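ok so I'm stuck.
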Amino acid sequence: MTKLMVIPTHTNVNLILDYADAFLLGYTGLSMNFVNTVNIDEIEKLNVILKKHNKQLWIALNKNFHNNELSNVKEIMEKLSKMGISGILYYDVAVLQMKREYQIDIPLIWGAEHLTTNYATMNYWHSFGADMAYVSGEITKKEILEIKKNTTMPLIVPVFGHLPMFVSERHEVKNYLTHFQISENSSIYYMEKEGKRYPVIDNDYGTFVYSHFILNGYQEYLEFEKSNIDYVLLNGQLIDEDVFASIVKMFYQKNGSDQAIDELVAMPTDKGFYYKETVYQVKNYEN
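replied:
not stuck anymore, here's the structure
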């Protein structure tokens, strides 16, 4: 049976506790594309609650690390291992290497977002010690199902929420505001282009741009379940907490539809890349 993994709207999980199987949260200062993050003390308290309800807790350490951060990453990994959380989502290969080198007993999800696009690379990292893969949101449904047939690695497939488009350690928005002497301080900004409105976050860790639409993969989720996809991911970030709770419940009870979700979010939705193949063409240059 396909499990529901969620990135909650806030670190308070009470509204969706009964309807989700697994929770994915970013670690403060060591994760990317997480609006709300948690520290080690908050993780410890949350892990106790989730274990009582037989729920999984996964923590993201998914940024590219500088050398001076590695000792802290190792320390956090060892603490999370001792807590017995379900595992870690990682981007930087240093996390996998430290697990091997220091024999840290904790499962790992390879979550390189734009790179987790094929079963050959997944199988390589699986043989190297990665336990699961978070499938890129930029490949088709057909390709996702092909990966499932050709790997023994458990998969996590995104089916709902804003998709990450761009990350920079530079403060693109804050630099712009400073340069033009604009006095504005917001937790979220919007970039408008060609009639589309993209959420932008500029915080202590850089600038993050998300899709103008919310991925609505409810019908695809039902198909993924028939194909024994291990987890689907619902991302509640930048979405009203009550609305997201209703959507998670709808997925859990399997009593929804694409249209019902569209009506709940009251924002532009899309099928993302499920039916959009990426085609590379070589331009013909005239002599």
